[in-house]
């Protein structure tokens, strides 16, 4: 048995890269939504303004996740 066959890696490392890249947006969404809920609980009168800002931030975080997904197929 040849030792080079045992150490051979098959498949694409892009999948692992995307898995690692998905951690960032996941953490970002958790912090973003959690802080928005906390802000609304502290000052309910500005709930609409906080919600609007949260959705803008949510769009940017999701763009980063989709960018990582696309780059996994391009690279």
Note the topology.
Elements: H1 3-6, H2 14-21, H3 23-42, H4 47-74
Membrane topology: Multi-pass membrane protein
InterPro entries: ATP_synth_csu_bac/chlpt, ATP_synth_F0_csu, ATP_synth_F0_csu_DDCD_BS, ATP_synth_F0_csu_sf, ATPase_proteolipid_c-like_dom, F/V-ATP_Csub_sf
Family: Belongs to the ATPase C chain family.
Characteristics of this structure?
mainly alpha, F1FO ATP Synthase, transmembrane, ATPase_proteolipid_c-like_dom
Summarize it:
The protein has 75 residues and is mainly alpha-helical. The protein is 80% helix and 0% strand. The model has no long low-confidence stretch (mean pLDDT 83).
Give a verbal description of the structure:
The protein has 75 residues and is mainly α. The chain has one domain (13-74): Up-down Bundle (F1FO ATP Synthase). It has four helices and no strands. It has helices spanning 3-6, 14-21, 23-42, 47-74. The radius of gyration is 20 Å and the shape is elongated. This is ATP synthase subunit c. It is a multi-pass membrane protein.
CATH class: Mainly Alpha
Report the CATH architecture. Up-down Bundle
For the residues shown, what is the average pLDDT?
Answer: 83
Query: Helical content, roughly?
Result: over 70%
Oligomeric state of shown chains: single chain
Kindly, what is the distance between the CA atoms of the first and last residues, rounded to a whole number of angstroms?
33 Å
| Shape, per Cα inertia axes | elongated
Number of helices: 4
Radius of gyration: 20 Å
- Helices and strands, in N-to-C order? HHHH
CATH superfamily: F1F0 ATP synthase subunit C
Largest sheet: none
Structural class, by secondary structure, is mainly alpha
CATH-defined fold name: F1FO ATP Synthase
List low-pLDDT spans.
none
* Binned strand content: under 5%
Number of extended strands = 0
Tell me the number of structural domains: 1
